[in-house]
């Protein structure tokens, strides 16, 4: 039972693509039984009707954006659930690449941050987790990893190639798994759950569909209720 839910991260957690109250974080807080009857009463407000909810996640967020989200997060009391989905946009903007900045193959561009190496990124996430635990003394933190929008092919639905960023995606998922294990935190293994489902659960090259958002919610719910 949680008193408040804080959702940090990127578009894997937002409503903008799935629809109002249909993003993964919103569904985890309060299911829309008119869309997803199988999750009736399988949500946070069913565990605690007074459970608050603050979604800080925003489209295109990188790790530096997640740091900004933490500065904006309410300092709530009680037992707090924290979910974070981050890393995908860092890879798409060239984390670990030799170029200064890049967009991804279909032309979208996220942010203008200088490229960092993976070790620097890991250290920053480590400090972020420390700050979350210091700020919210009774918190359960769930780390979500990243689905592969190419289903292992290295090519997006348009046929555009991710190139070396596809290997960086594997590196990022390995980093997130190791970080969750190091901190003894639940890992929401979105990557494994989405394998083979990109055509149905992902659209606009990298964004979750309504079904995709519900499936991310499913993995978060299973992490809370193993």
CATH superfamily: SGNH hydrolase
Structural class comes to alpha/beta
CATH architecture classification: 3-Layer(aba) Sandwich
Q: What is the CATH first-level class name?
A: Alpha Beta
Radius of gyration: 17 Å
Number of helices: 9
Largest sheet strand order:
2-1-3-4-5
- Between the first and last Cα atoms, what is the distance in angstroms? 14 Å
Q: What is the arithmetic mean of pLDDT?
A: 91
Overall geometric form = globular
| Main beta-sheet annotation | 5 strands, parallel
Q: How would you describe the overall organization of this protein?
A:
With 226 residues, the chain is of the alpha/beta class. The chain has one domain (4-224): Rossmann fold. 38% of the residues lie in helices and 12% in strands. A hairpin with a 3-residue loop joins β6 (202-203) and β7. The longest helix is centred in the C-terminal third of the chain and has 19 residues, at 165-183. 41% of the residues are buried.
What does the secondary structure layout of this molecule look like, with pairings?
Blueprint: E1 4-9, H1 24-29, H2 44-47, E2 52-55, H3 63-72, E3 80-85, H4 88-92, H5 118-135, E4 139-144, H6 165-183, E5 187-188, H7 190-194, H8 198-201, E6 202-203, E7 207-208, H9 210-224
Parallel strand pairs: 1-2, 1-3, 3-4, 4-5
Antiparallel strand pairs: 6-7
